[in-house]
Amino acid sequence: MVGSIAAIGMGLAVIGAAIGIGWIGSSAMESIARQPEAVGDIRSNMILMAAFIEGAALIALILSFLVAGV
Amino acid sequence: MLRFFLSTIYILSFALLGLAQHDHNHDHGHDHGDHSHAEEGGHGHGAVICGEQAHHEFNAGDNAIHHIADANVYSIGPLQIPLPVILYAPDRGWDFFMASKFHADLIGHGDGHVAYNGYVLDGGSVKRVTGAGFPDGEVNISGIIHKKVEVDGKDKEVAFVCYKEQLYPTDSKSTADGGLFGGGITSFYDFSITKNVTSMAIVLLFLSWLFLSVAKACKRNEGKAPTGLQNFMEPFVSFIQDEVAVPFIGDKAPKFLPFLLAIFFFILGLNLFGQIPFFGGSNVTGNLGVTMVLAIIAFIITNINGNADYWKHLFFAPGTPWFVKLILVPVELLGLFVKPITLMLRLFANITAGHMVILIFVSFIFIFGRSGESVPGAIGGAVGSGLLTLFMMAIELVVAFVQAFVFTILTASYIGAATEEHDHHGEHAH
To answer: Do B216 and B357 reside in the same domain of the chain?
Structure first.
């Protein structure tokens, strides 16, 4: 039972991260379309921001593992 | 035309893998019925060890975890090359020997036929027999089976050694995960030159050769256009310098550039080395211990180079009212430790997830082939899994670069935040 709840939590965390990263990606695409000359800066900042969001999702993932007691 | 030819060969070889898997099974069911291959999916038919059926339902998840784990043998294709073993148990001291002492088949799954000083080789990794009455020295064992038993209220898979028709439980090596991934402190510690250590040594030797020769070329070609290897490596180095070090660290970039380059090429080299199929299959950057050490190094370098401003902002959060400080300071302190922890987890999770997805795609062969019962299913699964694996490996190549880059850029941004000279004119104005 606890394992299933942890799995649901894991899924929710991944949905959150996916929405966040999707948003970053879409804004980055728009910015690149508006200002193609800034593509280098935009790309590295995009990856940086995505990495931060991923970090939050990973913490949720590990906490779910802990709760589920794999 | 060539491309078509190559892809046909690729898919055919996967289909043959499906067929081979069938034959393999057949063999084990009849000729080598005395060996246990219970830890490997789809090999368990017919083997009876100590009166127990070593049959094991094929479990794709367990199979994948087994294959990304560290091992005491180095596998090239089906070859299992023994590596040195260094073990320490508090109650019996140190043990140094080669893994060949376990007399595992050279072509097989790394299951030892001999127990040495109470240690056995199970699926490539050393385990220690914990049951009382198990003899020291070299003894022949009749096999190893895996059973689910309840330990502290949790289901845990434990390997049992069968010796003289009696089952002895075994311990896995101690891990520092505190039980997070099913490990913990057990009865012995493994300091061996494992598969991961060997891979690291190979990659380090290769990187040393690469960079020494590039450095030599740099000196020789000074003022001239770069050639050969130097030409190939220069964009990477200048990319890290111009896109990572200088924008994030600023004036102090030259001081930290060697560290950032070292960490980038170390991670990239190991990521790419782990991608080579059938050669070691090492998962070094997908090992929590390795990423933890990398993150700790980044943490130490960030903090010993932190200036007064960095520490002041950490502990006192200047320029904010006291009730904000009450919230901000604990959050900042938490962030201090969350940063290296996420560095560690991000690299580990990305690389491990990629390898696991590939292994689960390969497991399709066994799932659709119903562990060798259905040859058409196995061939279908093999073709499907071949294509999916090819696709996944292409993604993994990108991930190898992105994760090395992300680790470097995050380290650079942490160092940049710690060494930044703050402009305090705004605060002094009022």
So the answer is: yes
Q: Give the chain B residue nearest A65 (alpha carbons).
A: B180
Partner B contacted by A14 (CB < 8 A): no
Per-residue burial over B186-195, b if 16 or more Cβ lie within 10 Å, else e, is bbbbbebbbb
- The closest of B421, B176, B175, B417 to B299, measured between CA atoms, is B417
Q: State whether A40 and B243 contact (CB < 8 Å).
A: yes
pLDDT tens-place string over residues B78-107: 888 888 989 888 888 888 888 888 888 877
CA–CA distances in Å: residue B297 to residues B231, B267, B403, B410:
30, 13, 17, 13
Comparing CA positions, the residue from B374, B356, B353 lying closest to residue B42 is B374
Rg of chain B taking only CA atoms, in angstroms: 26
User: Are B177 and B246 found together in one domain?
Assistant: no
Write the single-letter amino acid at B183.
Answer: G
Domain boundary (B147, B164, B193) is at B193
Q: How many Å lie between the alpha carbon of B329 and the closest alpha carbon of chain A?
A: 19
- pLDDT digit string (tens) for chain A, length 70 residues: 777 888 898 899 999 999 999 999 999 999 999 999 998 889 888 988 888 888 888 888 878 877 776 5
In B, which residues are within 8 Å of A62 by CB distance?
180, 345
For residues B430 and B422, give the distance between their C-alpha atoms in angstroms, rounded to a whole number.
17
Same domain, B373 and B407: yes
Q: Looking at the structure, do residues B231 and B88 belong to the same domain, yes or no?
A: no
CA-nearest residue to B247 within chain A is: A41
Contact B273, B202 (CB under 8 A): yes
| A39: closest chain B residue by CA | B243
Does the distance separating the beta carbons of B180 and A65 come in below 8 Å? Answer: yes
